[in-house]
Amino acid sequence: MSPPPDTAAGEPATDDGPSDAFIADVFQRGCTSRKALETVTGRWGVLTVAGLRDGAIRFNALRRRIDGVSEKMLAQTLQSLERDGLVIREVRATLPPHVEYRLTELGTDVADRLIALIEVLEGSVTEVAAAQVRYDARSGATSGTPSGTRSDTQTDKTS
């Protein structure tokens, strides 16, 4: 075995063993990036991040923008996004005091990518609707029926 190469300063190189560097892998169950992805892509996460893209907004204005979200779910989503470093909650010292939410630099980067995805889907809505009609006709499902709930997925016990 050959001796370790010398470093630039003339000292022998040392092997410090395994690195403590964190390697993100969204496919690993406990990875922080996976948990953040779950928050962003959850039922209300995408709409919340996209709804904040145009700048700071008050809670109720954001709730009105995201049709169908409850106060509780929006509050939970905002807290999770704040914890993940995507959203900043800012309390304004006004009378009466009010709270605004805005995206961080990371949140803005994520929002830009989500908005690109939203634009693809909105621009393809007729294609998506046609695919849904074809699927439903082929599978015998009615519009809005989740896959896997058709009667042909039931086991026939008369055999």
Describe the structure.
This protein has helices spanning 32-41, 45-51, 59-65, 71-83, 105-123, 125-139; strands at residues 57-58, 87-92, 98-103. By secondary structure, the protein is mostly helical. It has a domain at 32-111: Winged helix-like DNA-binding domain superfamily/Winged helix DNA-binding domain (Arc Repressor Mutant, subunit A, Orthogonal Bundle), CATH 1.10.10. Strands 1-3-2 form a 3-stranded antiparallel sheet. The longest helix has 19 residues, at 105-123. The termini are far apart.
Give a short summary of the structure.
By secondary structure, the chain is mainly alpha-helical. The protein has helices at residues 32-41, 45-51, 59-65, 71-83, 105-123, 125-139; strands at residues 57-58, 87-92, 98-103.
Low-confidence residue ranges: 147-159
Largest sheet: 3 strands, antiparallel
- Fraction of residues in H or I helices: 40-55%
Strand/helix succession: HHEHHEEHH
Strand fraction: 5-15%
Order of strands in the sheet with most strands: 1-3-2
CATH architecture of the domain at 32-111: Orthogonal Bundle
Distance between the termini: 70 Å
